[in-house]
Amino acid sequence: MPKERTPHIGIYGRRNKGKSSFINALTGQDIAIVSDVAGTTTDPVRKSYEITGFGSVVLIDTAGIDDIGDLGKKRVEKTYKTIEWIDLAIIIIAENEFGRPEEQLIEELREYETPFLIIHNKTDLEPIRPGLKSYISEKYGVEIFEFSALKPDNLNDLINLIKRTIPEEAYKQPSLVGDLISYGDIVMLIVPIDLEAPAGRLILPQVQAIRDILDNDAVAIVLKEREVDAFLRKTGIKPKLAITDSSIFLKADASVPRDIPLTGFSVLLARLKGPFDKYLEGTPQIGRLKDGDRVLILESCTHHVSCEDIGRVKIPRWIVNYTGKQLEFDIVAGLDNLPRPITDYTMVIQCGGCMITPKQLKNRLLPAIRAGVPVTNYGMAIAYLQGVYDRAIEPFVKQKKDKTIYL
After folding, report:
1. 241: Cβ–Cβ under 8 A, 6 or more apart, which residues?
2. How far apart are CA 260 and CA 274, in angstroms?
3. pLDDT score at 401
4. Can you tell me the distance from the alpha carbon of 165 to that of 384, in angstroms, rounded to the nearest whole number?
5. N or C: which end of the chain has fewer CB within 10 A?
6. Where are the strands (E) in 129-170, listed by range?
7. Does 3 reside within a domain?
8. Residues 109 and 247 grouped into a single domain
9. How does pLDDT run across 56-101, given as a tens digit for each residue?
10. How many C-beta atoms lie closer than 10 Å to residue 165's C-beta?
């Protein structure tokens, strides 16, 4: 799995227009199969590479958007599916061919608000016609970049164009807690060690929090939930912030004094990567679930399932116990297709998404948001179910106090 902040760049175009040659020229390596036979690239191929002058990226080489036949249609469907993963699309055209296949692709890219470049390849054989160049520029607001994969004399210009076009959020890591703490502050991390914890190491969100605290010149103290009371009593230290694993929110709430802000690792990730405002709107929907409602739980990675699995076991159990309703749950791991239409669900619960990019996470939830299906994430849902929701989100939002008006 690529690093979560590695930009994902999809390469699209018709068959035999030089997509694979373009990738080889861009990376300076023979990493994609080049052939005169149309349809050589069948399924999307995703690999991490280094672009000189830019850095690490994940390039996705896709099948032709004009593929034909029953098998070809399936390949095109897979090609379009990759749009949910990418931060930037590069559309390869050549020989002055531009029409409905490219227009449909651009429509889909705009649906996901994905920036794109249009490259006219093979310009050493046939330059782009001025009329086509003007048409595309006026209709889509992008300039055509003329390029030859066989004679990439303007490669540096292309790399600079990619730098200018790709969103900063694709490669710049914002801070998890930088706006909550200052130099020298102490942050207490409450980490359970149970059957779900990986042997000999911490899980990624916990490691990310520790690194972010250190990057902000603060102090991270890591301890298990049963050590919190003794630590606070013996040391007299008052942490600036406490962060807990979502599964033990209730225990942490009882142990951490009210004058110390408390939140969860998953809530931090929700604010960092997800549609936080939509999570805030959607989380209270848990209390409105009815008999027969179907809940979709989205995991962004695959892992060994234990009897204490947070998404597959604990959250469904907690929701049923909290609501007292007969509910149906679907669990989807990774970026797999959903088993049914999104409108079949009453709400969607997304994991923290520590293993995927912000764009992938947001695109994963986009169909639900557009359909009006409430969304939340693991940490915020668990905090709500355990009665500590207001406290968990308090560091990030201004709570509105109800006012009683006496007539």
Report:
1. 177, 180, 181, 185, 187, 188, 260, 261, 262, 263, 395
2. 25
3. 44
4. 39
5. C
6. 144-146
7. no
8. no
9. 888 999 999 999 888 989 999 999 999 988 999 999 999 999 999 9
10. 16
* β-pairing verdict for 144-146 and 116-121: parallel
Residue bearing the bigger pLDDT, 69 or 242: 242
Collapsing DSSP to helix, strand or coil, 106 comes out as helix
* Cβ contact 15:67 at 8 Å: yes
- State both tokens at 80: 């379009």
Q: How many residues does the chain have?
A: 407
Residues 215 and 318 in one domain: no
Indicate the number of domains in the chain.
3
Contacts 24+ apart (CB under 8 A), 34-38: 38/64
Beta-bridge partners for 61: 11, 45
DSSP state string for 9-20: EEEEE-TTSSHH
CATH label of the domain that carries residue 218: 3.40.50.11420
| CA gap 393, 115 in Å, rounded | 32
Q: Contact at 8 Å (CB) between 190 and 241?
A: no
Residue with tokens 């940490």: 379
How wide is the angle at C-alpha 166 spanned by C-alphas 40 and 65, nearest 5°?
25
Specify the pairing of strand 45-51 against strand 55-61: antiparallel
